[in-house]
C-alpha cells in the first residue's frame, strides 16, 4: 500500500482529539458525561440513555477497570465536526425542533436550545470525540473501545434515529488525514438497523468497504444508502443465533478476502438481542458475546494472516439488560486474550 507522507492531505486544523494518551491507560474511552438525563424527557425514547455508565460500572465491579484506567474523552468542537458536517447542518441543530426530530423525542422542541445543547447535544459531541480518540488508539494499541458512539444513522447533512453527529465517518476521516499507513477502512456494522449515515457519507469512496448485517424490515429503509454496501446481509425478522452467527462469519471472511483494510470500525449494536422493541431479532445474550468474539478473532486472532487494528463502538440497544451484556462481552474478549492492557503490535505497510 502506498501511503507516503506526500500523499497525505495537509492537516486542516489543530485538534485535541488525536493527542497522545499515556500508555498506562487502557485503550477504552469513557466519561460519566456520556449519560443523558434532563427532566425525565429521555425516558420518552426507548433508548437507555444511561447505558454507557452502567457498562462502565459493571466493568469496575468485576475488578477489571478503575476510574483512572480509562481515557477521558474530549468533546468534538465545531471545527472538528466541520471535517464531515456542513455549517448549515450544524446550524440547524440550534433549533430545538430539529433536534426533537433527530432524537425522536417531540417535547424537546419546546425546550430552549441552550438546554438542548447542554443536556443532550454536548454528551453526543463528547461521545463523538471519544470515537475519534479511540480510532487513533486502535492504530497504536491494536484495538480500542469507545463505551458509547456508533451514531450510524447520521450523515454529513442529516441526522436521525437518535444520531446527531456522524462519529464513525469523522473517526475514519481523521485517520485518513492524520495517520500514516491508514488509507483503507472497513466498517463492520452489526447493529440491527441499516447504517445509512456512514453509507451515505462513503457511497463514492473506494477507500471504505462497508459490511452491513441488518433486519430488512425495520428503520431506516434507505435504498439510496444501500448502494454503498459492498457486503450486504439482509436478515429476516426474529433470526436466531446459529443462522446469524453463520452469516456473520461467512460474510466477514468473504469481506476480508475481498478487501485488506488498515483498520476495522466495528459497530457492535446490541439491539439484535431477543425482545428488543426496535431490532425485532432473536439473538441471545450468549449469541452477542460469541458475535463480538468472532469479529475480534477474524480481525486479530492467532493464526490470522494479518493483525488488523479494530475500533469498537457500542451503538444501539434498547433494553435495560444490554449494558450487562456489553460488559460481559468485553470481559470475554479479555478472557480469550483478544484484548489486553498491553499495547499490541500493529502491522501496517507504509
TrEMBL record:
<keyword id="KW-0156">Chromatin regulator</keyword>
<dbReference type="InterPro" id="IPR044150">
    <property type="entry name" value="HDAC_classIV"/>
</dbReference>
<dbReference type="GO" id="GO:0141221">
    <property type="term" value="F:histone deacetylase activity, hydrolytic mechanism"/>
</dbReference>
<keyword id="KW-0678">Repressor</keyword>
<dbReference type="InterPro" id="IPR037138">
    <property type="entry name" value="His_deacetylse_dom_sf"/>
</dbReference>
<dbReference type="InterPro" id="IPR000286">
    <property type="entry name" value="HDACs"/>
</dbReference>
<keyword id="KW-0539">Nucleus</keyword>
<feature type="domain" description="Histone deacetylase">
    <location>
        <begin position="45"/>
        <end position="327"/>
    </location>
</feature>
<dbReference type="Pfam" id="PF00850">
    <property type="entry name" value="Hist_deacetyl"/>
</dbReference>
<protein>
    <recommendedName>
        <fullName>Histone deacetylase 11</fullName>
        <ecNumber>3.5.1.98</ecNumber>
    </recommendedName>
</protein>
<keyword id="KW-0805">Transcription regulation</keyword>
<dbReference type="InterPro" id="IPR023801">
    <property type="entry name" value="His_deacetylse_dom"/>
</dbReference>
<dbReference type="InterPro" id="IPR023696">
    <property type="entry name" value="Ureohydrolase_dom_sf"/>
</dbReference>
<keyword id="KW-0804">Transcription</keyword>
<comment type="function">
    <text>Responsible for the deacetylation of lysine residues on the N-terminal part of the core histones (H2A, H2B, H3 and H4). Histone deacetylation gives a tag for epigenetic repression and plays an important role in transcriptional regulation, cell cycle progression and developmental events. Histone deacetylases act via the formation of large multiprotein complexes.</text>
</comment>
<dbReference type="GO" id="GO:0000118">
    <property type="term" value="C:histone deacetylase complex"/>
</dbReference>
<keyword id="KW-0378">Hydrolase</keyword>
<dbReference type="GO" id="GO:0040029">
    <property type="term" value="P:epigenetic regulation of gene expression"/>
</dbReference>
<comment type="similarity">
    <text>Belongs to the histone deacetylase family.</text>
</comment>
<comment type="subunit">
    <text>Interacts with HDAC6.</text>
</comment>
Amino acid at each position: 500500500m502506498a501511503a507516503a507522507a506526500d500523499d497525505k492531505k495537509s492537516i486542516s486544523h489543530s485538534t485535541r482529539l488525536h493527542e497522545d494518551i499515556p500508555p498506562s491507560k487502557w485503550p477504552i474511552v469513557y466519561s460519566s458525561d456520556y449519560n443523558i438525563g434532563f427532566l425525565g424527557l429521555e425516558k420518552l425514547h426507548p433508548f437507555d440513555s444511561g447505558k454507557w455508565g452502567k457498562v462502565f460500572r459493571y466493568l469496575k465491579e468485576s475488578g477489571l477497570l478503575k476510574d483512572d484506567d480509562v481515557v477521558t474523552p474530549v468533546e468534538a468542537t465545531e471545527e472538528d465536526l466541520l471535517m464531515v458536517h456542513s455549517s448549515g447542518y450544524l446550524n440547524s441543530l440550534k433549533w430545538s425542533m430539529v433536534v426533537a426530530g433527530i432524537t425522536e423525542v417531540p417535547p424537546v422542541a419546546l425546550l430552549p436550545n441552550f438546554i438542548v445543547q447542554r443536556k443532550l447535544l454536548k454528551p453526543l459531541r463528547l461521545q463523538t470525540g471519544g470515537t475519534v480518540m479511540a480510532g487513533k488508539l486502535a492504530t497504536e494499541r491494536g484495538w480500542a473501545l469507545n463505551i458509547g458512539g456508533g451514531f450510524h444513522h447520521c450523515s454529513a447533512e442529516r441526522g436521525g434515529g437518535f444520531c446527531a453527529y456522524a462519529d464513525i465517518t469523522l473517526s475514519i476521516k481523521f485517520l485518513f488525514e492524520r495517520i500514516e499507513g491508514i488509507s483503507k477502512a472497513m466498517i463492520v456494522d452489526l447493529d440491527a438497523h441499516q447504517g445509512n449515515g456512514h453509507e451515505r457519507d462513503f457511497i463514492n469512496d473506494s477507500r471504505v468497504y462497508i459490511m452491513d448485517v441488518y433486519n430488512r424490515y425495520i428503520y431506516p429503509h434507505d435504498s439510496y444508502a444501500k448502494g454503498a454496501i459492498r457486503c450486504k446481509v439482509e436478515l429476516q425478522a426474529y433470526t436466531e443465533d446459529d443462522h446469524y452467527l453463520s452469516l456473520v462469519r461467512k460474510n466477514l471472511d468473504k469481506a476480508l478476502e475481498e478487501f485488506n483494510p488498515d483498520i476495522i470500525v466495528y459497530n457492535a449494536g446490541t439491539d439484535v438481542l431477543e425482545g428488543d422493541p426496535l431490532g425485532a431479532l432473536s439473538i441471545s445474550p450468549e449469541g452477542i458475546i460469541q458475535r463480538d468474539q468472532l469479529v475480534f478473532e477474524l480481525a486479530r486472532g492467532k493464526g490470522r494472516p494479518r493483525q488488523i487494528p479494530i475500533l469498537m463502538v457500542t451503538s444501539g440497544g434498547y433494553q435495560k439488560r444490554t449494558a450487562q451484556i456489553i460488559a460481559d462481552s468485553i470481559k470475554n474478549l479479555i478472557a480469550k486474550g483478544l484484548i489486553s492492557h498491553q499495547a499490541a503490535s500493529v502491522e501496517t505497510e507504509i
